[in-house]
Amino acid sequence: MKTLLIGKLHNYMVQHHTDLLIALQEDHRLNHYLSTKIDSISGLIEELQRDNRPAYVIEALCLEELTRDLRPSRFSWMRELLEEEFPEDCQRLNRSGILTYELINLIGACEPIFEIFGFGEEHQDHRGLRAAITGLIAEYLENQQPEN
User: Fold this and answer.
1) Are 107 and 75 in contact (CB under 8 A)?
2) Is the pTM of this model over 0.85?
3) Quick one: pLDDT band at residue 120, thresholds 50, 70, 90?
4) DSSP alpha helices (H): ranges in the chain?
5) What is the spatial distance between Cα 102 and Cα 90, in angstroms, rounded to a whole number?
């Protein structure tokens, strides 16, 4: 079960927290991070198994607990915002193979805005946050364009 959950957590991070995944890989801490997260829910796994819960229920409940502190994902939120508000730029960055790299840069550039507005499940739909981030992305992308 733990091996399966490590794989599911890793897949979740690939899709929603590529920035964290890359940072952990660069520091050679990914395996430790995944193991520590799984160890933190050992009691939950044992309890659910004692209660004879089906494997799919155990997986779902454990993954919910494992990702609780990872939601919402700034990386996914920024990617969706870029796709919605700047579709041509998003496609260009994706075609050139630097979309992930630029999203990570944008998250870093937007950190002060995230701190001012807060970023959590209750704030991710805040109009002011979205407007501020959209403006910063527009400025960032404009500065990335080669001068004619």
Assistant:
1) yes
2) no
3) confident
4) 2-16, 18-26, 30-39, 42-50, 55-67, 74-85, 87-95, 99-109, 111-117, 127-144
5) 10
Q: How far apart are CA 108 and CA 47, in angstroms?
A: 40
Give pLDDT tens digits for 57-114: 999 999 999 999 898 889 999 999 999 999 999 999 999 999 999 999 999 999 999 8
Question: Would you state the structure tokens that stand for residue 90, as one six-digit string?
Answer: 């998003």
Whole-number Å distance between alpha carbons of 73 and 61: 19
**24, exposed or middle or buried, with CB in 10 Å at 0-12, 13-18, 19+?**
middle
